[in-house]
Amino acid sequence: MTASAPYLDEPSLGAAAKFRLFGAAVSVNHLSEPPYTHILNSQFTSITPEVEMKWDATEPAPGSFSFDAADTLVRYAHSHHMRVRGHTLVWHTALPSWVNESADLLQAMRNHIIGVMQHYTGHISYWDVVNEAFDEDGSRRKSIFQERIGDLHIEEAFRVARATDPYTRLCYNDYGIEGINAKSDAVYDLVRDFKRRGIPLDCVGFQCHLLLGTVPPDMQTNLQRFADLGVEIHITELDIRMPVPASTAELQQQAEDYRKVIQACLAIPHCTSITTWGITDKYSWVPGTFPGYGAALLFDENYKKKPAYHAVLQALREAPE
């Protein structure tokens, strides 16, 4: 690459974020691509493994753990002075088939949490302990964990996680809870209950997989009510999708949407981490999940900064120290 490449010689999002982390979801498969790693190294201060720490990747057979891919990401992060967010220990998706066949699912869940967290003790700043446990109406998701263990599985996961590694921060993570609605009310009630009963929970992750033009107007108010419970607030999987090919007007709207999300976080001292779900539109999950949509990230398919990048950078720079 030459010095004229579009991603070189620009300020850093991570530096502009000051005391907050500014991270990206990363795939080990792309670490051999120079533009990808240059942006990762120069712009971000934390890494979330996209798939490498999920259950099917780390424990494909009962008690048989596989950490090669995740270890590669952790070593990479530490060698570049980045934090690591562990993602995720208990989720209804990305499960190996044996989990569904387990005679004692509660013990299997405990063993999985212990096995993974012990391997990474001292190397992970935050763990998404439980991911996406609620449906849109605020009821518990009808996952295998809910159906066979019941409500207990969430608090038990956090108790086991704290006992395994007392020093990492433990998070609940979900989508569709950015504004005040039935789902965010249910998560709020869970967090409040956990805090009252002394169940260890340190942070709440707001995924922020958003559609263009849909940043909730009450997002800051919602984040603040969670912060008032005494937990850290994290933006964990931010992307803002739109129909493709995107127009100039849509890219400008996306920039404004990103600005709104970042400013909602920056207004709250307890909002300490922001992560985008990927680096470049080239590898975004969006087109494969939402046909006809894409262009969701800060860098386009050619690693060129989009208007959203500059909006985020400006918002970070304008934040109080």
From TrEMBL:
This is Beta-xylanase. Belongs to the glycosyl hydrolase 10 (cellulase F) family. It comes from the Bacteria. The active site is at E237 (nucleophile). The keyword Cell membrane does not apply. It catalyses: Endohydrolysis of (1->4)-beta-D-xylosidic linkages in xylans. PROSITE patterns: GH10_1, GH10_2. Its EC number is 3.2.1.8. Residues 7-315 form the GH10 domain. GO terms for molecular function: endo-1,4-beta-xylanase activity. Signal peptide: none annotated. Keywords: Carbohydrate metabolism, Glycosidase, Hydrolase, Polysaccharide degradation, Signal, Xylan degradation. PANTHER family: BETA-XYLANASE (PTHR31490:SF88), GLYCOSYL HYDROLASE (PTHR31490). One of its GO terms (biological process) is xylan catabolic process.
